[in-house]
Amino acid sequence: MPHLAVERWAKSADSPPDAPVALTVEGTHGPIIHAVTKAAAERGARAGARLTDARALDPALVAVLADPDGDAALVRRLARWAGRWSPLVEVDGDGLKLDVSGVAHLFGGEDALVRDVERRFAAIGLTVRVAIAPTGAAAWALAHYSPSPLCGGGSTRAQRERGEGPNERTAPLPGDAARRLSLPHGGGRDLEEQLTPLHVSALRLDPDTVRTLERLGLKTIGALLGVPRLALARRFQGAENVVDALDRMFGRKAETLTAVLSDPPPRASLRLEEPAMHAEAAGQALERLIPLLVRELEQRRLGARRLSLTGYRVDGSTAVASVATTIPSREPKHLTRLLGDKVAALDPEFGFDVFALTADWTEELGAAQQSLVEDPSGERELARLVDRLTVKLGPRRVRRPRAQESHLPERASGWVAAVSSSPSQMGRGTIPRRGNGGGVKDGGSNHPSTMLRMVPLPTPSAQGGTRPSRLLDRPEAIAVIYATPEGMPRRFVWRRAVHDIARAEGPERIAPEWWRQPSSARLRDYYRVEDASGRRYWIYREGIAGDGRGGAPAWFIHGPFG
Amino acid sequence: MSRVVADLALVAGGGSRAAKIDQLPSGLGERWRLPAPPSPTLSELFAAHPRDGGWVGFMLAQVDSEKPLLWVQDRMAILESGRVHPPGLPSQNLIHVEARDARDALWAMEEGVRCSALSAVIGEIWGDPRALDFTATRRLAVASERSGTPCWLVRLGGTANLSGARMRWRIASAPSLFNDLDPKAPGLPAWDAELFRARGMPPGRWTVAHEADRFHLVAASGGRALGEERRLSA
Fold this sequence. Notes:
The complex is a heterodimer.
Chain A lengths: L1 H11 L8 E7 L2 E7 L1 H5 L8 H7 L4 E4 L2 H14 L7 E4 L2 E5 L9 H15 L5 E5 L2 H10 L12 E5 L3 H5 L3 H12 L5 H5 L11 H9 L5 H6 L2 H7 L6 H8 L17 E10 L4 H20 L1 E12 L4 E12 L2 H13 L7 E13 L13 H16 L4 E6 L5 H4 E5 L31 H6 L15 E2 L4 E7 L6 E6 L2 E14 L13 E8 L4 E7 L11 E7 L2
Parallel strand pairs in A: 1-3, 5-7, 6-7
Antiparallel strand pairs in A: 1-2, 4-5, 8-11, 9-10, 9-11, 12-13, 15-16, 15-20, 16-17, 17-18, 18-19, 19-20
Helix pairs in contact in A: 14-15
Chain B lengths: L14 H4 L23 E6 L7 H6 L8 E6 H7 L1 E2 L9 E6 L2 H12 L6 E7 L7 H14 L3 E6 L10 E8 L15 E9 L5 E8 L2 E4 L10 H6 L1
Parallel strand pairs in B: 1-6, 1-7, 2-4, 2-5, 5-6
Antiparallel strand pairs in B: 7-8, 8-9, 9-10
């Protein structure tokens, strides 16, 4: 709608309110007017006309490039903000569609709700047309085309509210419809009476169909209703079925609504009398909202995995603080503690006037016996610890190991965020250590593996393990002196310190993973070495001489043994 | 067969403490026990050298791995001496925390120490950060004693200043034990463990190895645990 663009532009630009300004977009044959100010409209500029034509009428017209993306972003932001009235909000072109069934009484009735919507949008400098109707199509038509005195006067942005209960969708009750429709007009007329004088384009048909209808003399919805359905259906058989559009408008046919959530998430909200500008407001709101939300979670037997507190500011923006938990929870103390820090950091700017606490992600959680003393089971306590650590440090810094199918040591020890590992993994997770079998080849001996099995191999723990307890994130290059190129290393220099190798074991050959690594990747021969003072390290030689994958083999240190 | 421990040098503490030598074993028949706190508390462990990872085995031998472990490392500790590698640990049941600095690491440790569902909290701190003062260690010690979760504060490249830890160790790697299968290969790890401050216990210095769920004293030259002889001759 033109005025959203114009009003948005007028808020950001310094210009006298009566300046004739046209916002333009690039068309096929030069700039096309996208929106005009009131002054420009009075002088003959129309949206959709070419700029040159409008300039011919009024040479003083100022042209400014429009920003449709910015406008769309504003509508999306407003849609989130409109969550203060109803949890079901859909962005519908340039307007918003709210499902307000069962909501209006919270705001003191539908009259009060409409007044509230208008007042709040006026406060942020946007004009709206509000209509409440039993069907979405009817609300759209009324908001866009109704010559209502309440919403007229150049206001062009449509804020449509639709009340659609399951019964109304299929068979609207005339009395109910009249009650709802009485709002924008103030009269007692029913739905049909209000809709019949509207132009056929209120049915949201495509321009070609509208033109055809006009040629046929069917200019209003009322005229269209007078035509037998069968004749209409036969005449308009394409994708734009006029009968369908009529049925949608009068609630004889269900209309799909993309934003409809079948199961709205548990939510508790708090409306303040006065905007709260002080920083502690959010924390205080949280303390009030948590018990409400916990009660709802209890009734629905759910536990929250992700919680967010949204603060709705008076200027039409929102601020969100959200946290995730490891296991579903509905313990007020734990949830308050998790959200507390983040909520305290919310900036009120010009003040919050509504807070809503939503459990965006929930999981089944049956009723559990709450122990009398503060002594929850280990798993829950552990999950709480992970939650607290994750909230403060971030999920990438609090992790649990997860063994990977890989021979490469740095790949074999995978890490996953502790908060995302499933509760069943908590408290367990001891993975059997990988021995010398599998893909780890014994490069030093020619014994087949069956021979090796007959020898009583030491268990890894008995000999201190075959893998170091720590790995450097990047293997560091070392200088190694060895007796023969393929032989045991004798001495190495790491970080400028010389280590004389007293004892060594190896090599343990780990081949590159050719299915994952480039063909130039070289094999590694790992040695467990111990220097004269007893420090033990895991070093490897990358490549062997003459493998055709680079020059002389290089030595690296991968980690110390513990 | 009995052999007197050769490398039994009581260094720290001076002559008066050396009189307590009768507490220590004179042979294999007696069970020698590594000094351990009577109840879970905060122990501080100084790696003799940042590039010496030997302390890991010494510490893990004293941590039971039934419950998960919280392992906190600050950024410098990871850069300088490597990140924990679960396949090389006796248990993979752990939560690893990569802290930005010592302050975050200490906070994470304190959160962990309050949680009694952990078998132990291990925190590696690099150097001598300002955040690590007597108050911080004292808080850890009190929290650990209250919850019964042992806490190990590992100091890499730091100096032993004032601390609230109940036991303070300095651990260096010692030449490993004799490897039965390959004399040229490293055997069971051994450590040169110095207890330089402990509440209610005499300080001391021992060369120990861990096998069959208990610590053994190690003879210096042979690189062989006491009892090794008997097993070989059997």
